[in-house]
Amino acid sequence: MNFDPTTLPILVFILATLMSLAQPFNNAVKRMNECAADAYSLNAVKLPDVLASALVKTAEYRNPRPGALQEWLFYTHPSVERRVKMAMDWKAEH
Predict the structure, then answer these.
(1) Which InterPro entries match (predicted)?
(2) Distance from first CA to last CA of the chain, Å, rounded?
């Protein structure tokens, strides 16, 4: 079986297409892990105001309120707004 180098661009194109289609799902898994990390932080350290303050500072370089589609397609972390709300909900419960 011989490898034909002229098929390489086609293989690269197919691989790039598949990776692009899988990216939103990969981002969703990363966002779930980040939510779990935030919850762990809140339960371990119990400083929701500090977490919220740190998250608000990240709004300087990323949109704190992306649209649902934008977040699903491009964001690897939950929106700042959702993360701060989660911290404040945790604070209200505890």
Answers:
(1) Peptidase_M48 (IPR001915)
(2) 65
Cα separation, 35 vs 41, whole angstroms: 10
Residue type, 46: K
Q: How far is CA 45 from the centre of its chain?
A: 22
7 DSSP 8-state letter: G
Give dist(CA 84, CA 16) in Å, integer: 35
Q: Which residues contact 42 (CB under 8 A, 6 or more apart)?
A: 48, 51, 86, 87, 90
Give 27's contacts (C-beta < 8 A, 6+ positions apart).
Answer: 72, 73, 74, 75, 76
pLDDT (tens digit per residue) in 14-63: 999 999 999 999 999 999 999 999 999 999 999 999 999 999 998 888 88
Q: Token digits for 60?
A: 């300087």
Report the alpha-carbon distance of residue 37 to residue 75 in Å, rounded.
Answer: 16
66 within 8 A of 75, measured Cβ to Cβ: yes
